[in-house]
Amino acid sequence: MPALALAFNAFVWGVSWWPFRELQARGLHPLWATALIYAVAVLAITGWRPQAWGQLWRARTLWVLVLASGTTNAAFNWGVTVGDVVRVVLLFYLMPLWAVLLARLLLNEAFTPLALARVALALAGAAIVLWPAEGGGLPLPRTLPEALAVLGGFSFALNNVMLKREAHQPEAARALAMFLGGVVVAGTLATALTLQGTVATPPVPAPAWVLGALALAAAFVASNLALQYGAARLPANVTAVVMITEVLFASLSAVLLGAGVVTPALALGGGLILAAALLSVRG
């Protein structure tokens, strides 16, 4: 059951690109959708543990977690909605590369040979994935979805490092910080881009998209509960391996539904990135 719970969490995140695209087709931009979905989760936590607000306010360092979690969700959800899903998910999983650097900076963890091997594998995989098809130029993000994927992976690594650093904080306060981040970051960015005319205003409430957004919110809350249930009952290395199946769910669903293409270069680069993620399990 714990392994199935983790697989359910990975499945929800792996196929979440599809409902986000469906909501966008009905006029709701992924940033507005993210803010709405996480607002529902914040209301649920408030009803469950109202004291979490006071705990969050007193623990000022948790506001870094608010920004990190919010940036992760805003970038990932936006990226998989507008870009090639397989490419975005693989670049997002450069997280082990950033985790090594951030752990050194924030947790004072030493560079080990295994950590440096993860960095090398992740960099090599990223270079292959991002190498320009026409040859020439540096292997850097060239499109909005690619930039969002890299930013999301970096902020996800910061999110995980901060969770480890602030493990002594109350669980409800940490959960509130993570969900609140989705509301604050995505909502602020959506508002700013809407005022600029870059993002459309949310459509008039209609059953087609309101029910879909509420269903997606329920799926995310359920997946979070499944993650907590599974992670509390399995070793951390087993949890990490099962969670990597998110890439499998995302890739298969995207290829089957025409939202992603797997090229030989993408498969090679993605394999190196996933190898770095698996090495982080041993670390």
Care to describe what's here?
By secondary structure, the chain is mainly α. It has one domain (2-282). Helices cover 78% and strands 0% of the residues. The chain is built from 14 helices and no strands. The protein has helices spanning 2-15, 17-25, 30-48, 52-58, 62-82, 85-92, 95-106, 113-130, 144-165, 171-196, 207-231, 236-243, 245-256, 264-282. α1 (2-15) runs antiparallel to α11, α2 packs across α5 (62-82) and α8 runs antiparallel to α14. The radius of gyration is 18 Å and the shape is globular.
Secondary structure elements and their pairing?
Blueprint lengths: L1 H14 L1 H9 L4 H19 L3 H7 L3 H21 L2 H8 L2 H12 L6 H18 L13 H22 L5 H26 L10 H25 L4 H8 L1 H12 L7 H19 L1
Helix pairs in contact: 1-11, 1-13, 2-5, 3-5, 3-10, 3-11, 4-10, 5-6, 5-9, 5-10, 6-9, 6-13, 7-8, 7-9, 8-14
